[in-house]
Amino acid sequence: MFESAGRLVYRGRWTLLVLSLAAVVLAAPLGMELFGRMADGGFDDPAADSTTAAHWAEDWYAADTPDVVVIYRHPTVKVRDARYKKAVHDSLRKLPGRYVRTSATYWTTGSKRMVSKDGHSTYALVTLKGDGQRAYAEVADRLRDVENLRVQVGGPVPLLAELNDQSAADLARAEAISTPVLLVLLVVVFGSLVAAVLPLVVGLVAVVGALVLLRLLTEVTDVSVFSLNVVTMLGLGLAVDYSLFVLKAFREEIRAGASNEQAVVATMATAGRTVAFSGLTVATALLGLLLFPQMFLRSIGLGAAAVVVVATAAALLVLPAVLGVLGRRVDALRLTPDFGYARRDGGFWHAVASSVMRRPLLHLLAVTAVLVALAVPFLHVSFGNVDHRVLPAASESRRVAEIVDRDFARNSMSPIDVHVLVERSFTDDPATPGPTGQGHSAIGAVTPVTPSDAKPLANRIRRLPHVTGVEVAGLSQEGGAVRLAVRYDRDPMSEEARALVTAIRALEPGPNVRGVVVGGPTAAQMDLMASLAATLPWMALVVCAVTGVLLFAAFGSLVLPLKALLMNVLSVGASFGVIVWAFQDGHLASALNFTSTGTVEATVAVLILAVVFGLSMDYEVFLLSRVRAEWLRTGDNAAAVAAGLRQTGGVITSAALLLLVVIGAFSTAGITIVKLLGVGMFVAILVDATLVRALLVPAAMRLMGGANWWLPGPLRRLHRRVELPEGPAEAPVEPVKEEWYRPLTRGGRPAVFGADTDPVITLAKPVPSADRPGWVRVTEGRTRVVRTDGSGWRWVEVDE
C-alpha cells in the first residue's frame, strides 16, 4: 500500500507541489479570519443545572446580565458626591443606543455593594446589543472618556477580546522564537541548509491548515479561544517531527545509491508507514475528547485531530514530492557534518543499548522509581476552574475582576445564582382554546410572579452557614421565575462554597414552587467535575481499545499494545505530577510568570491527558517499527531490541529536541492554560524520549523475550489479512536447488553456515527448523527458516 502510494507521489510530484502551493496561498486569508470569531468559556456541561441557570440568566434576565464592567475611581472625591454621579451618568448617556441596551449604576440601583469599602470607587454594569464583540469595539473608547475619573474596563466581553488579542500575540511570539532556533538545530542535525528548511516548509503548511480548519469549524460550532495556540503548537511540532523521520529515510536511500523514484518509494514503505500509524494513534487519542460534552474539549479535540491529519498528510505527500524533485540535491548547501544519527559503530546509542541488554532489570526498576517519584505530587491534586487569572497580571480585564473582588463586597460579581420556578394559576377559568370570534374566548391571564413567591426559600437560604445576604436579582414573567443572588464569605472554589451549593440544592423549595435550579461559578465547577468523572472512563476505554487495535495491526502482537499502554500511563503520571508541583503548588510561578490559583483546571487536565497520551505513543511507534523489522530479520529478540534502539535513538532524540523547542516557545504564552499544556507536553516528551523509550521500553522488552511477539493462531491469521508490511515488496524468488546445512558452532560464538564453495552466512545464533531441528535451509544467500511455533515460512536477510 505505502509502496504504491510512494510511486503515485513520485509520478505526480509536480502536480502535488503546484496544488499544495495554490492551496496554501488561497487558504491563508481564510485562516486569518479566525481571529475574533472564537468563543470564550465552553467549560460547562450543556445538560447540567448550572448551565441551564446560565442560559436562563441570559434569555430571561438579559437586562440584568452585564457584558461590561466599568470601574470608576477618584482619589479624594467619594461616590456619594453629586459631581461623581454627574460625571459617570454623562459618560454613559453618550453611549450610542444602537450598541448599548442598558446600564446600571449605584445611583440607579441603590445597591451598596456597588460602592468600594473606602467609598472612592464604584462600577457600572453595561449590557450590549447584538454582536457583543463588535458592539464593544464601537464603545470601548467612549467608556473610558469620563471627566476627572480614572476608568478601567473589564467584564465578559472585554475579557474575550483580550483573550483573542493575547492568543494572536502569543502565536506570533512563539513562531518568532521557535523558527530561527529550529532552523539552527535542523542544520546541525542534517548538515545541509536545503534539508533543514524542508521541515519548516511542512510546518508552515500544517500551521496554515490549522488556522483554516479552525476557521471552518466556527461555521458549524463554537470554537474555544484557547484552541488557537494548542492546535497550532501541535501542528507545527508534529509536522517537524514527522518530516525528520521521512528525511532521514530518504537520505539513507539516496546515499545507498537508489534513484529518486526508488528512494521515494522505499521511504514511503518504511518511514511513511511508521508516520501514518503514528499520526493515526495521536489523532485517535485527541478524538477521544469528542466524547465530552464541553465545547472547550470538543472544539480542541476536533481541531487538534484534524491538524494532526494535515501534518501527517503534508509529511507523506508534500515532503516526498519535494524530495522526488530534489533527489541528491537535498544535501546541497552543506554547512556542517550531520550529527543527528549514530555512527556506523553505534557510538553513544550502541553503548546505551549494550548497557540495557546487560542489566535490563536494574534499568527497569531504576526508571520506574524515577517516574513514580515524579508522579507523587499528583496525589494531592486539587481541581479548579478557568477564570480571569489565565490572563497576564497586567491585563485590564483581570485587574478589574481583582479590584471588584478585593475592594467591593466579596463575591459581588460571582454569587450563587438561584432560579425559583413558581407554580402559577389562571386568573380566570381558562376557556377552550380557539380563535376568538368563532365561539371561543381568549385564555385567561396567569398569575404574575412577584418577589414574595421566593421569600420562604430565601429565608431558609439566609440561615445556611457562610451566607451574608440573599437578594432578588430579577423577575421573569415569561419564564415564571424569581432569580435570587446568594452572597457568601468564602472563596467560590472552597469546600465551604461547594457545601453551600449542595445545601441549597437539598432545601425543601416550599409552597407554590415547581422547581429550583442553582447556578453560578461554584455550582458550575461541581457540575463540571461530575461530568468529567462520568465521561473519562469511557474516553479511556475507547482510546485504549482503538490504539490497541492500531498497534496490533502495526506490530502483530497482543503483548506490545498492552506494554505500550502501561508505559504511557507512567509517562502521563510523571507529567501530571510535575504539573501539580509547578502550577498548583506554584513552584514555577516566578520562572514562567503566572499566578498560581492553588488548583489545576479540570478540563485542561483532560486535554493534557489526551495530548500527552498521543505524543507518548508517537515515539513508541517509531521504536517498535525498527525493533519489529529486526526481529523479522533475525528472529533474536535481544538483538532486535538492541538494533532498534541503536537505529532510532539518535533520530528520536533529534525529533524530541525539535518538538521541545516548539513547545518551549509556546510555553512563553501569556495565557496560563497554554503554559500549563506546554509544560505538561514538555515534561512528557522529555521523559518519553529519554527515560521511557531509551531505557524502560528496551529493558521491558529484553526481559519479556519472545513473549513480546506472542499472538494466538486465529489472531495471527487475522493479522496477516490486515497487516501493512514495512519495506518495499520483494520480487519473487525463482525456484533454485536447495541444500541443507548443519550449523557449525565455534565456542559459543555466532554460528557460521555454508561450505567452501557457498556464500558464508552469519546469524546472531542458530535458528532451528521445525522440520529438521538444528538445521537451516540456504537458498542463494537467503536463509529460509520455519518458526518453531509453527507460524509458517519467513525470509530473513543475511550477509553474504
Please tell me about this protein's structure.
The longest helix is centred in the first third of the chain and has 35 residues, at 156-190. With 800 residues, this protein is α+β, with helices and mostly antiparallel strands. Mean pLDDT is 79; it is low at 340-345 and 727-800. The chain is elongated and about 90 Å long. Strands 2-3-1-4 form a 4-stranded antiparallel sheet. It is built from 23 helices and 17 strands. Strand 16 and strand 17 form a beta hairpin. Helix 10 (260-287) runs antiparallel to helix 11, helix 18 runs antiparallel to helix 20 (602-634) and helix 20 packs parallel to helix 22. The chain has 4 domains: 2-39 and 161-384 and 527-709, no CATH class; 67-154, 2-Layer Sandwich (Alpha-Beta Plaits), CATH 3.30.70; 415-519, Alpha-Beta Plaits; 732-797, no CATH class. The protein has helices spanning 2-11, 13-32, 49-59, 82-93, 106-109, 132-143, 156-190, 193-217, 227-255, 260-287, 295-326, 347-358, 360-375, 396-407, 455-462, 495-506, 521-555, 559-584, 589-592, 602-634, 637-666, 672-704, 713-722, and strands at 68-73, 100-104, 121-128, 150-154, 383-384, 416-422, 467-476, 481-488, 513-519, 600-601, 739-741, 744-746, 749-753, 761-762, 776-779, 782-786, 793-797. The relative contact order is 0.11.
